[in-house]
Design the sequence.
């Protein structure tokens, strides 16, 4: 069942330790199949070097396991809520990567301070508030997903133009058109979080990236006038 | 004698350089056998690439060598005091890992600022005071063990819920049910110490992790209602 | 066409990930052939592990592709402007390397704070201002090249004595007599940017490197009285 | 000539990049033979992967080349002055390692803030002043050596109890009984420089390591009552 997607999700999970984003069994990546309304996610708490593609768990958009020998990631319900609400999302990555987590623990939005940021995130990456007592009791993981939706709606953000969020006191979620791009965005978010932290330390009065440069860099890589990379026909 | 335990302790010692926690011969890991009232520890000052499992030294809970060709770690007496007092502890790890040592040198408790911390440490990791002149003269390593006990008793901490301590001006000790988990806790402590340092730098007014989130994260991984990872039957 | 130069440029591009200066497809290195008035540059957005020397693109000093299956780097026009104006430059390297980018995002010149800097850069590395709205609209990459020229002319800097620049909010460009030395200068710039950041944090009143030491270190490696390294005849 | 020493010096030089202390051809390690009054040092500006033991250069204590195909390190005269003056020194290592250089560029002594420091350096590592114009003109490298001697004499320091120095605006020199221990001390100095930097940032009012702990840690590893490591007979 969904064997090709399982392989993609498995490979994308391996990219988390490869890029230094996780230690031990931390982190989880998933990808969805819109036709069947299902997604594939890493099992919970299994070491990366003991995983194989067939261990990936198949889950529906209500977070119910459809196929799989193992229990899925403890964050599965968060993934499910996001796939159900945001139809553009094809893959999701969660980690406690060092520098994005530093911003999350500081409880601050990650501002667009440079073109490395602007190449991928079209503006600040928002930091979502702590869950309330009531939300925690109602269901921590489902409510985390709902909070991400709330955060993007309140700020009127395009989920594909800003493909990530920081959860206060916790860490980042990123997403993309598939599992691989979700992890790529995790790597970039962490890199930018590190750059911006030290740039802010070096000059607390540093000017933010002007809108004209933000536009230029984002739009030369994204949208119909993009000219970065090779044309599809190549 | 205790060959299986020696192998476990040997492997756990090798994890110290593997995870970047030590340089040269620094650091030492031990594990105990409650039935015989003995523990196994790394010999002192021997390079990691020249160690083998059979070089591990067997010691009793009074710190006396029972078997072994080499002198045990110079910190052996500290391990002995901890095993003797805390019956839950099965393994102990000591290093001068960078970021935990930074907090130790700063003389500060490591506060619970994020869920990465809460997943393993149920609250702040305490920083124990400097030993007094009298304590140093009486026996540095034994008194270090007693100071750790004093620190946990004064603060009324559960040694397994907060499986680590910082020694002011020195570095961390961590422990767990066995040698491997003791080292895992060293890795996590160092990771969290780094995150928390930079989060504090980024926002000195960052809110501490609310108790509800600390509870949620700690208890979804520990205790009878835990749901992280795979069920034992799997 | 220019096969030897393509090989040099290909190898120099591989040095960017080797020295940890780039992630993914970021970064681009070129080198020019003064006789033919052409330069060779990396294609845009192709993964480093899928590149080969023959994929390098040949471009003239007006930024027009002369030979190549792929589209050249999106920053090609910046390279072209620099080769056309500065006849001493044989190779150019661009990346978003962490620490040089931190200074660029802070919008600050990188001062000469130590001999590691003075061994390669004969004085501060300038930070060029943001492009204006008009410049962005006129042509982002061409104008970036012109801005670098403006920056060096306004400050009366020798482009080979200070072989690099920071672009505000963006990142560094470095250059040298060939592709290899351009990348070497990128590595050194990033190393120095890191040193200087933390030295400034440690002591905001640190004395700048005295001119006599700056002279000594730069001139023992460069110019006709240099005595570092081996004599050409060796 | 001195083949065994050349091999030791060659291996110790390779340890500089192995431990991440140098990039490119930076850094140089030497060791001396007290019987012949000669020392062996790395040639200048040759890449580490192109070196072999036979390329090492033999020099006398006046800095004159006695044997060798290549020019010796440009810092050779500094090594010579130190060997001539300090008869206890058997090996010397020089690098621009990141964190020691940060302290050198900040122009500050590296204080003993923790036991990692105390295990090797019996007190603060001094930062020597900038050379004067006159000294630079008289002979930069010879005067650097004399300045190190002046620094240790003025402060009445034992060169073997504090086996290293920071040169303001430049970087560290360390030494030891042989080439290997000189490099080991470089590694430790850099590690401690990093720890102390961040500990100071975390708590600017952190207490210095009390003398009783400094004594305990230094003396359990050094001198006739040392009990760290294995007895020589083992």
Sequence:
């Amino acid at each position: 069942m969904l064997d090709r997607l399982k392989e993609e999700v498995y490979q994308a999970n391996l990219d988390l330790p490869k890029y230094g984003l996780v230690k031990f069994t931390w982190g989880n990546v998933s990808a969805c199949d819109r036709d069947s309304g299902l997604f594939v996610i890493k099992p919970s708490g299994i070491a990366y070097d003991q995983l194989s593609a067939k261990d990936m768990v198949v889950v529906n958009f209500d977070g119910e396991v459809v196929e799989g020998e193992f229990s899925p990631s403890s964050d599965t319900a968060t993934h499910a809520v996001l796939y159900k609400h945001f139809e553009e999302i094809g893959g999701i990555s969660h980690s406690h990567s060092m520098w994005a987590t530093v911003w999350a623990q500081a409880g601050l939005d990650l501002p667009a301070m440079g073109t490395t940021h602007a190449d991928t995130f079209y503006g600040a990456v928002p930091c979502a508030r702590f869950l309330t007592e009531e939300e925690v009791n109602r269901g921590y993981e489902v409510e985390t997903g709902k909070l991400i939706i709330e955060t993007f709606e309140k700020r009127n953000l395009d989920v594909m133009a800003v493909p990530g969020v920081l959860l206060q006191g916790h860490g980042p979620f990123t997403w993309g058109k598939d599992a691989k791009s979700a992890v790529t965005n995790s790597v970039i978010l962490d890199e930018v979080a590190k750059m911006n932290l030290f740039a802010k330390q070096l000059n607390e009065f540093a000017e933010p990236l002007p809108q004209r440069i933000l536009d230029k860099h984002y739009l030369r890589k994204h949208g119909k006038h993009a000219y970065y990379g090779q044309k599809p026909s190549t």
About this structure: Chain C is about 40% helix and 15% strand. The helical segments of chain C are 3-18, 76-85, 98-106, 115-118, 133-154, 179-202, 211-221.
